[in-house]
TrEMBL record, chain A:
Belongs to the ABC transporter superfamily. GO terms for cellular component: ATP-binding cassette (ABC) transporter complex, substrate-binding subunit-containing. This is ABC transporter ATP-binding protein. The keyword Transport applies. Keywords: ATP-binding, Nucleotide-binding, Transport. It holds the Pfam family ABC_tran. One of its GO terms (biological process) is carbohydrate transport. It comes from Pseudoroseicyclus tamaricis. GO terms for molecular function: ABC-type transporter activity; ATP binding; ATP hydrolysis activity. SUPFAM superfamilies: MOP-like, P-loop containing nucleoside triphosphate hydrolases. Residues 6-236 form the ABC transporter domain. It comes from the Bacteria.
TrEMBL record, chain B:
Keywords: Cell membrane, Membrane, Transmembrane, Transmembrane helix, Transport. It holds the Pfam family BPD_transp_1. Its main location: membrane. The chain crosses the membrane at residues 32-57, 90-112, 124-144, 173-198, 219-244, 283-303. Gene3D superfamilies: MetI-like. Belongs to the binding-protein-dependent transport system permease family. PANTHER family: ABC TRANSPORTER PERMEASE PROTEIN. This is Sugar ABC transporter permease. It is a multi-pass membrane protein. Residues 87-302 form the ABC transmembrane type-1 domain. GO terms for biological process: transmembrane transport.
UniProtKB/TrEMBL annotation, chain C:
Its main location: membrane. The lineage of its organism: Bacteria, Pseudomonadati, Pseudomonadota, Alphaproteobacteria, Rhodobacterales. GO terms for biological process: transmembrane transport. It is found in: Cell membrane. One of its GO terms (cellular component) is plasma membrane. It comes from Pseudoroseicyclus tamaricis. Keywords: Membrane, Transmembrane, Transmembrane helix, Transport. This is Carbohydrate ABC transporter permease. InterPro entries: MetI-like, MetI-like_sf. It comes from the Bacteria.
Length: 360, 311, 339, 410
């Protein structure tokens, strides 16, 4: 059981008639970086608060390090938490913020000093120790907030959208630092975000949540390449996946004039079943130019809008009157109005059942 | 977050004009709009104050007249037992009222903030006395504290014959009789202000302190209260301005009695001006009151509003 | 919530095979009568009784007859309920020669209240806005001066304000008489005097003056908390001082307006001193009559009439409190607490 | 400019004078039952006998509440047509400042000099030979009111003098009766002292102190006895917690207390309670020790308005207030004595008759208001109420501080 850092069993949380979390099970390994990803209202922060003990579940159990902590106070659970709004104590210095909890727990003075110094060193906030949060920048504040979790010397860190109040550049920087921190500390980290880039880059595993349920829990790679349903497929990836509605007949996907033999596609059920289906094609998996003709499935689309982004170019077109996005190499010139030949590898496509939206 | 931020906003800078317009006309609308306020501040409050101070050096009786008598009025003022007692009473009442109003107001607000049932009902109950005037407050508490019909009488009629609670007729504790009524009237507003302040505190702070394992009371005293500094400033301004003006309640409840044991400075002023028809004496007493206000208030105001830098 | 918690623990106990992971599940069991709750509600209820006691005393006393008041204690319920004190307080009690109770003062109070509240809040709102968003050199000094004014006992300012009103009135009369001849040809139409002292307009001005310190403080703090970006954006769009105020700031000010209205209605409605000093007998507000009823003594005080009169006078502000108590807290949260 | 002036005109009252009947706003602090009924007599007289209207500006709470309002109105240039003051030194400054209407021509026309009795009342209205106020009644302080029932209950005869009363006090205590009723207000305590001073130290000593401001008399033996007696009175009054004078009177009416030192206005309370002088209660003018009454009272002043029509109406009103019918009607209701020696009150009880006799004999003295400035009175009020309420304060302390205040007084 030592491999299990945080376990959640049959967790339910209702606010009156509203079911925020439903029969949720989650098993987080020791040292794992788990990201809870979802749009707002999906219950990801609620779940995190339940793990932290800030919210009481209606039913179910929570274990941390094999101990049932369902009824324990947050401070007794062996967790540290970082908040979106930093939640620093504004009237105390950085040092005060870091040490306040420890002083309360009657940790010996030299031990406090050791831990504060270590956290400050790790986070490179030593020069800031005597300042108050009001005099810090957003990034510095967030480091202090992380430091406050760090000094607690706990096994599990909880992050509640820690980077969303920062600007893009800083967010990228801190993201890397967080990853480095995880490598260095090797603690279990549970991280809530709505930003898929953060999720993809940081996570060992991602749990995609919707409506209080976990849609898919897997490594970023699997989530990206083999989304279990249309929601996950749509949610992950930028620009988002193209969906073409059609039918699957004897291993061939048809949508209007477009046909695609699902050669090499790894069906979830083992083999193909006929019926209406949706094909999900990632814009970056579409092959253009001369190589397109070599692909098993091809079609022609008209470039309606071209968005050059430097490294790559995004092309907007239409397939069956639905918007269709293609991402191609930035140095290939494309004119608006140009007809493009594109090729698709069925092995990299995701097929979903039209009615259940589950992966086929 | 807004709480931590300084309220100071830098005056909007015009993009450097080629020819700087005359200083007086910059922000002209603002200056025009502030004329009523400036007129009030300068003509009424400052002018009235200066007028009062000037006439405190005269022997004005029923009408203000410029018969200079130097510091005579002040000498007499400080030689008068009633004035000394008034100041002592105000100090006693002021300290008790300030501390108790803040403490009770905050504790009640904190209790209402603990996600309790019937919050609306409790809040309305605590706030309604503020809708009533001091005259009414004084009257009803005089009635309740009446030794024959009120609390003392009722307790005695229940069989506890020796029970004594007669603050309004006991010079030693009469100020506490006033305090009971004053707190009843004033704590509700302060509670509302505190409650509003508590509601303005980021939920994450509470969560952070729970994760840190800080006990609730310590979270209040060490984190929440320091964060509510602006709230306390507003509250203290309100309470203190009420304390200095304490008059109606005393008149309605005790008329300064028994004897002169519940006299207060504002009443001394009124009594001198209109009872004794000695405006000069009243103005001298007013001047002393104003002086103490200025001594306390100006350094604070400069710090609060004048200073550029604030954490 | 608590019930579910206990239910769940029972379920877990009944069904131990449910999972290998036993122990606490669901919400922590809470008893409604936990020690903490007993303390909390106990204190709240005791305090609520202290706050309600005077209201209770006022109501029961106002419904008792005088003999009963003399016999019983202030807390006992009335034996024979009588509404005579209310009738007397409203329509019959004598204040001097006039024996029509509080009713004559009620409408005077309304006439004083409405323009005073409107004017004082308008001035304070504009001033607070100018002080927070359009600062200029010295504006803070004036503001500090104004705040000192909040600490001056009204009584001290009685005579200075009388003199100011008199002189301003005379000054305006001079202007009026000096200039009106240019504009009107009608003979004798310029004889009138502008009279501020002893008139309703004078009283309205006085209420505005003395309400100003606290109100300006509230509005200033409130407007300061409105994001600077909004203001800047409007400036960039070419909006001026008044446009920003009316189009952007005012529509956002409902909470603080509620607070200002409540404070002013209470203050002005309960005012006695200004009402009696700065108006004439025909315009005396209700509080003057209340004072006359309460302070006029003959024989034993008519406590029941006093209490009825007190309650009647307090009805208007009380009604406003009961109706808008919730908005009040919200408004204070918006305005008073951000410095 | 036009717009602004129009606005100003719209917001402020622009008063234009109109001819004919005048509204006369009269400010006073007579609001309790009997007082208000008495004022009603004035109002009726004005409304019926003249074409003018009486606008009542009653402000309860006594002179301290009403006076700032009146003075403010005068300073502010919007004076009432008439206002009530105690005659004496209170209005002197207003007269000096030329704010009060000169009534000399009315006084001469009506022959006030001949009819006002005692003449000192008119003197109090006269400043530098001109008459400025219309005295309307006489009130005197020097009375003690006793409850016959209380003495009966204690098995005692109703005393005839203060000295006897003091001897009876222990017996009253034993019977569970508070010997002396005293309200909690300063003016009652100082007023009672004044009564005891003239009764126990004599008129000469009192005048030496109050009129000549001779502090050595205060420090003297005669006054020392008064302070001692007052300290005894303090003990006699223990056990009754009331504020207003009429609550104290009520204690005498109910027999809870045996006696009260209070001016003749207290008699109105006995009358309202349906008690008969001589049977249910007794009265001792001059505490039974000395046959003298002071002649305080109320007067009306008429501010200068600059409007001849109002002025004429004011003078009409002044004359009316002193007319015999109005005097009788007013004073019968108010319970005070008329200022005219030539009228008879309709009903006169024992006590009122005693008072009238004293007046007729000329056993009068000037009232405190006529001798002491309000400022000094105010200081003495404070001192005496402090003395009364501070059991630890000795008679000697009070005596010395009293002397100091008299020394300062001018």
């Amino acid at each position: 059981m030592t491999d299990h850092s945080v376990q959640i069993k049959d967790l339910d949380l209702h606010f009156g008639a509203v079911k925020v979390l439903q029969n949720l099970n989650l098993d987080i390994h020791d040292g794992e970086f788990l990201v809870l990803l979802g749009s707002s209202g999906c219950g990801k922060s609620t779940l995190l608060n339940c793990i932290a003990g800030l919210l009481e579940p209606t039913d179910g159990q929570i274990f941390i390090k094999g101990q049932n902590v369902t009824w324990k106070e947050p401070s007794e659970r062996g967790i540290g938490m970082v908040f979106q709004s930093y939640a620093l104590y504004p009237q105390m210095t950085v040092e005060g913020n870091l040490s306040f909890g420890l002083k309360n727990a009657r940790v010996p003075k030299d031990e406090i000093k050791r831990r504060v110094d270590r956290a400050a060193e790790i986070l490179q906030i030593e020069p800031l120790l005597k300042r108050k949060p009001g005099a810090l920048s957003g990034g510095q504040r967030q480091r202090v907030a992380i430091g406050r979790a760090l000094v607690r010397d706990v096994d599990v860190f909880l992050f509640d959208e820690p980077l969303s109040n920062l600007d893009a550049k800083l967010r990228a920087d801190l993201r890397v630092e967080l990853k480095r921190l995880h490598h260095q500390l090797k603690n279990t980290m549970i991280y809530v975000t709505h930003d898929q880039v953060e999720a993809m880059t940081l996570a060992n595993r991602i749990a995609i949540m919707k409506g209080g349920l976990i849609m898919q829990l897997d490594t970023p790679d699997v989530i990206y390449n083999r989304p279990v349903n249309k929601y996950v497929a749509d949610f992950i990836g930028s620009p988002s996946m193209n969906f073409i509605e059609g039918t699957l007949e004897r291993g061939t996907f048809r949508a209007g004039e477009f046909t695609m033999r699902m050669q090499g596609y790894d069906f979830a059920a083992g083999s193909a079943q006929d019926g209406p289906a949706i094909a999900g094609i990632r814009p970056e998996h579409i092959v253009t130019g001369e190589l397109a003709a070599n692909m098993p499935a091809t079609m022609q689309v008209k470039a309606e809008l071209v968005e050059p982004m430097g490294s790559d170019t995004l092309i907007w077109s239409r397939v069956n009157d639905e918007p269709f996005r293609i991402r191609m190499d930035g140095h290939l010139p494309v004119e608006e109005g140009e007809i493009l030949n594109i090729g698709i590898d069925p092995a990299r496509v995701s097929l979903f059942d039209t009615s259940t939206e589950e992966r086929l | 977050m807004a709480i931590a931020e300084s309220a100071d906003t830098v005056a909007p800078e015009r993009s450097a004009p080629q020819k700087r317009p005359l200083r007086l006309f910059r922000n002209l609308s603002s200056k025009i709009a502030l004329i009523p306020m400036i007129a009030t501040a300068v003509i009424v409050f400052m002018g009235g104050t200066i007028w009062t101070v000037v006439y405190s050096f005269t022997s004005s009786g029923l009408l203000p007249r410029l018969n200079w008598v130097g510091l005579d009025q002040y000498e007499r003022l400080w030689g008068t037992t009633k004035w000394i007692i008034s100041i002592q009473n105000l100090a006693l009442y002021g300290i008790c009222s300030l501390v108790l109003t803040l403490v009770i107001g905050f504790v009640l607000a904190a209790m209402l903030d603990r996600k309790i049932r019937f919050e609306d009902a409790f809040r309305t109950i605590f706030l309604y006395p503020f809708a009533l005037s001091f005259i009414v407050t004084g009257l009803v508490w005089q009635w309740i504290l009446n030794p024959d019909y009120g609390v003392q009488g009722v307790v005695r009629s229940l069989g506890w014959e020796s029970f004594t609670f007669n603050p309004l007729n006991n010079p030693d504790i009469v100020m506490f009789g006033l305090l009971i009524a004053g707190l009843w009237q004033g704590t509700g507003l302060i509670m509302c202000i505190m409650l509003a302040g508590l509601r303005g505190i980021d939920d994450d702070i509470w969560k952070a302190s729970r994760v840190d394992g800080i006990p609730v009371w310590k979270t209040y005293t060490r984190i929440i209260i320091p964060m509510m500094r602006p709230v306390f400033v507003t509250a203290i301004v309100l309470i203190a301005s009420g304390i200095i003006k304490l008059y109606d309640l005393v008149v309605a409840q005790t008329s300064g009695g028994p004897g002169i044991s519940s006299e207060v400075p504002a009443k001394y002023v009124m009594q001198s001006m209109f009872g004794g028809q000695n405006l000069g004496q009243g103005f001298a007493a007013s001047t002393m009151m104003l002086l103490s206000v200025v001594i306390i208030l100006v350094p604070w105001a400069l710090l609060e509003f004048g200073g550029r830098k604030r954490g | 919530m608590a019930d579910i918690g206990t239910l769940n623990t029972m379920k877990a106990a009944e069904d131990p095979v449910r999972g290998q992971l036993d122990g606490p599940r669901g919400a922590r069991p809470k008893r409604n009568l936990s020690r903490r709750n007993i303390m909390l509600y106990g204190v709240l209820i005791v305090v609520a009784i202290y706050y309600l006691l005077p209201l209770y005393v006022m109501i029961v006393t106002s419904l008792k007859t005088m003999p009963e008041i003399r016999l019983g204690n202030v807390f006992s319920l009335p034996k024979d309920i009588t509404f005579q004190p209310w009738v007397k307080a409203w329509a019959e009690a004598c204040t001097g020669v006039n024996c029509d109770g509080l009713s004559r003062g009620f409408w005077n109070s309304v006439r004083i209240l409405i323009p005073s509240v409107i004017l004082s809040i308008s001035i304070a709102c504009v001033s607070g806005y100018a002080l927070s968003k359009w600062k200029f050199k010295g504006s803070e000094v004036f503001f500090t001066l104004l705040l000192v004014g909040a600490f001056i006992p009204y009584q001290v300012m009685l005579y200075p304000v009388v003199i100011i009103l008199r002189d301003v009135g005379t000054f305006l009369t001079d202007i009026w008489q000096g200039t009106c001849g240019f504009f009107t040809s009608a003979e004798g139409s310029c004889r009138g005097r502008v009279q501020l002292f002893g008139s309703l307009s004078g009283l309205v001005i006085v209420h505005s003056i003395f309400g100003m310190p606290i109100l300006v403080l509230l509005f200033r703090n409130y407007f300061a908390s409105i994001p600077e970006e909004l203001f800047k954006a409007a400036r960039v769009d070419g909006a001026g001082f008044w446009q920003i105020l009316f189009r952007i700031m005012l529509p956002m000010s409902l909470p603080i307006l509620v607070v200002a209205i409540i404070l002013q209605v209470t203050g002005i409605w309960n005012d006695f001193l200004f009402g009696v000093v700065y108006t004439r007998a025909e315009q005396y507000p209700m509080t003057v009559q209340l004072n006359n009823i309460v302070n006029s003594v003959q024989g034993t005080k008519e406590y029941n009439v006093n209490m009825a009169a007190t309650l009647l006078t307090g009805l208007v502000p009380l009604a406003i409190y009961f109706v808008s108590g919730k908005l009040f807290v919200r408004g204070i949260a918006a305005g008073a607490v951000k410095g | 400019m036009k717009l602004t002036t129009k606005l100003l005109a719209a917001t402020a009252i622009v008063s234009a004078t109109s001819a004919g009947a005048v509204d006369l706003e009269v400010m006073h602090w007579w609001t309790s039952g009997g007082e208000a009924a008495a004022v009603q007599e004035f109002a009726t007289a004005v409304n019926e006998n003249t074409e003018h209207n009486w606008i009542d500006g009653a402000i309860a709470g006594g002179g301290d509440v009403a006076r700032p309002v009146m003075v403010s109105r005068i300073i502010g240039g919007d004076p009432p047509a008439a206002f009530q003051f105690n005659h004496g030194l209170q209005a002197q400054e207003l007269i000096e400042a030329g704010l009060i209407l000169d009534l000399t021509d009315v006084a001469e026309e009506q022959g006030w000099e001949d009819i006002v009795n005692p003449p000192s009342l008119l003197d109090a209205c006269t400043y530098e030979g001109r008459v400025y106020c219309a005295p309307v009644n006489i009130h005197s302080w020097q009375w003690m009111w006793l409850s016959n029932a209380a003495f009966e209950e204690a098995g005692l005869e109703v005393p005839e003098t203060w000295t006897e009363f003091v001897e009876d006090a222990p017996a009253l205590r034993e019977a569970g009766i508070v010997p002396l009723a005293m309200g909690g207000q300063a003016w009652q305590q100082n007023g009672s002292f004044g009564v005891m001073a003239v009764a126990l130290a004599g008129l000469d000593n009192l005048l030496a102190v109050n009129r000549d401001k001779d502090a050595s008399v205060v420090r003297g033996e005669a006054y020392g006895q008064v302070f001692q007696a007052y300290a005894d009175a303090r003990e006699m009054a223990e056990g009754l917690d009331v504020q207003d004078w009429n609550q104290a009177t009520n204690a005498v009416i109910t027999g809870e207390a045996a006696a009260q030192i209070m001016g003749d206005w207290a008699q109105g309370e006995f009358a309202v309670a349906g008690m008969t002088a001589g049977e249910d209660y007794s009265c001792l003018p001059g505490l039974g020790e000395i046959a003298i009454l002071d002649t305080g009272g109320d007067a009306f002043y008429f501010p200068v308005t600059g409007d001849p029509e109002i002025e004429a109406a004011q003078k009409e009103m002044a004359a009316l207030m002193l007319s015999p019918e109005v005097q009788v009607a007013f004073n019968s209701v108010k319970g005070s004595l008329p200022i005219r020696g030539d009228v008879d009150l309709t009903t006169v009880n024992d006590c009122t008759q005693k008072g009238l006799d004293l007046l007729a004999n000329g056993d009068t003295m000037p009232s405190g208001n006529q001798l002491l400035s309000p400022d000094t009175t105010n200081q003495l009020n404070d001192l005496m109420t402090e003395f009364w309420n501070t059991p630890s304060m000795t008679a000697e302390d009070a005596q010395e501080r009293y002397a100091q205040i008299i020394e300062q007084a001018s």
